[in-house]
Amino acid sequence: MPQESGDKNSSNKKSCEKRAKKPNQNFRPGNRDSRKKAEVIIVIFGLIEILSLVLWQSADVFHKFSDIIHWLSLCGFIAGAAYLLDKVFNHNKWVWILYMAACALLGLAVYENSEPSPLNRTESKSVEEVENSTTPLQANKPEPQAALQTLAEKLETTSDQLRQATQGMANLEAANEALMNAQSATQARRITPQQRENFIKILSDAHNVSKIPIKVIVGRTDGETENFALQFREMLDEAGYGTVPSGLQAPLNDPSFKGNILYVTDALPNIKIPMYNESGKYEEIIRIPNLYATPTSGSSQKGPDVIAIFSSTNGTMGIPSMFPDRPTIMPMHATTNNPGGGVVYAYSPAQNPDKILLGVMEVLIDDGISTSAGGGKTFLKPGEIAFFIPQKLY
What we know:
Low-confidence stretches: 1-6, 23-27, 117-124, 134-139
Order of helices and strands: HHHHHHHHHEHEEEEEHEE
Helix content: 40-55%
Number of strands: 8
Oligomer: single chain
Number of domains: 2
Shape: rod-shaped
């Protein structure tokens, strides 16, 4: 009996020791090494995938090797898939055999579809093919003489088109000028407030000391002629060319300004021009019913607004020859003698009535009022000057 009891105790003790040792079997050092190895492999394949993506994006930079780099990138992309399949099939060697076969097929496909570079294409041709080949540019290259002929024809065509365009522009300008002349011919003459103010200020300078009464004459008349003659007469009166001196002109305080002296200024007198005289009190307007103006033969221009009648001793009307004398006033615009631009006004004293009338004509022309000198017998006394207001020519 004591022997049986001892055997049972010993067997129970051995089974307990075995159960105590089983939990430690799950933490063998070999398991930890396998896990670290798997992590390292995953990192390596991840780097391969990233490197493959970078090479795929930058393959074109390497020109001649771009096809090889594209192939390596594709192999790198599918390497990760091959590794996963290898894990699924418990390290089956056929997985990697198939991977290598896929890489070989991809390499063959890339090679068959690759485009040789221009240098390679030239080098791949034989000497005979290069000598006998003709590029499209060479085949279509014209002969020098034919090219010059074609260029000359194009230049001639362009010259004709330019000539036609220039002629068309000239015709258009002529039509516009004719239209403007027609519109001007149908519009009534009038002196604008700006014209009136400029005229009076220029002729009211203290250095314009040469003034005498200027008559205004009307011949054949109508409403338009009467209205313009009254405006013109009123403007002359305000500028001091009536029988009553103008109150706008200041006395001359320049003792050095004597005969044959030229005074030049670019400033008009600082005076306030009165409103248009609506009282109807003007200098006399002389009326000669049978007096009229005839247009110049062959002239397409409209007649002048006013006609200057100079003092004459030979019974004719016209601009007298006064060279080298000068008018009493000359508005001068920018010229080679006045490069600074703007307008200057030159005043010169004179007793000659014709110089006085010519000076007033210069101001009228500068103010945009057209003037001319007529011809025929005079009806003024010696020393008298006048402006004739012709009936408007339509």
